[in-house]
Amino acid sequence: MIICLVVLGGMSAAYLTPVIGEITAVVRITGEGDGFGRALGLFNALMSVAMVVAPLLSAIMYEKTSMIWTTVLIGAMSLTQVPVMALFIADKRQKALDQQQYEDTMNEQARILELARIHKEKMQQQQQQVFG
After folding, report:
1. How distant, in Å, are the alpha carbons of 10, 43, 44 from that of 72?
2. Tell me: the pLDDT tens digits for 13-54?
3. Residues 83 and 26 both lie in one domain
4. pLDDT digits 0-9 by tens, 86-130
5. pTM (2 decimals)?
6. Whether residues 45 and 77 fall in one domain
């Protein structure tokens, strides 16, 4: 029984880890302002609710049936999430687009910083000529 629960915990970690990356990728593409905070806050709030509700439902099911059926149900729910996660995580085209947008943004920021540095140097040269 303990082995089954350890395996289920490992499965949870296996599909929750990429979810955070997907949330941040979606927010980076579509969100503005405090999108990261709101998205991750909502995710954490729902995870907290699930941590309260899941043991209660498991206890009710255990009382009505047995631990075997409770574990089978948890395993079935975990296995049904694998294909759903694969649909969202496997979109390599969107990930490549997201990576390209990120690189373009970084290049644009570097270009703007370089222009600002050049402008600052010109202003300093003009000040030296005037106040010399």
Report:
1. 16, 26, 26
2. 777 777 777 787 777 777 667 778 888 888 889 889 988 988
3. yes
4. 776 656 676 777 778 888 888 999 999 999 999 999 999 988 888
5. 0.51
6. yes
| 90 backbone dihedrals φ, ψ, rounded to 5° | -80, 5
By residue range, what is the domain housing residue 110? Answer: 92-132
Please indicate, yes or no, whether residues 76 and 115 belong to a single structural domain of this protein: no
State whether 2 and 55 are in the same domain: yes
Q: What is the C-alpha to C-alpha distance for residues 111 and 117, in angstroms, rounded to an integer?
A: 10
CB-based burial of residue 83 (10 Å sphere; 0-12 exposed, 13-18 middle, 19+ buried)?
exposed
How many distinct structural domains can be found in the chain? 2
CB 18 within 8 A of CB 85: yes
The amino acid occupying position 49 is: V
